[in-house]
Amino acid sequence: KLFVLAFALISTLASAQDTQDKRWAHESEASVVTTTGNTETQTYSLKETTSYKFDKNIIENKASYLLQKDSGDKKAENWLVSLRYEREITEKISGFVMQTVDSDKFASIY
What we know:
This protein has one helix and five strands.
């Protein structure tokens, strides 16, 4: 729950910022793929990445979701949420800590 809250908070803050503020970066993707023929397949995918840079620090969160159905039956469903903090130590060296939570029921990853 904490990661989802952090994801929502950072995404909301990034959306509210002036587009001229280069400290914030945001990317979003959405896709829908539908095929028909011998079988009917639908695939839905969402993905977002938001980062905030200040001084020698970067905070970044990522989230993604994928759902695939074949003739109405779920064939794939997975999601991922991650939060990362990076600190520049020197011009060529940096360190980071990151936490990722994900699930892929069809690959037995819970």
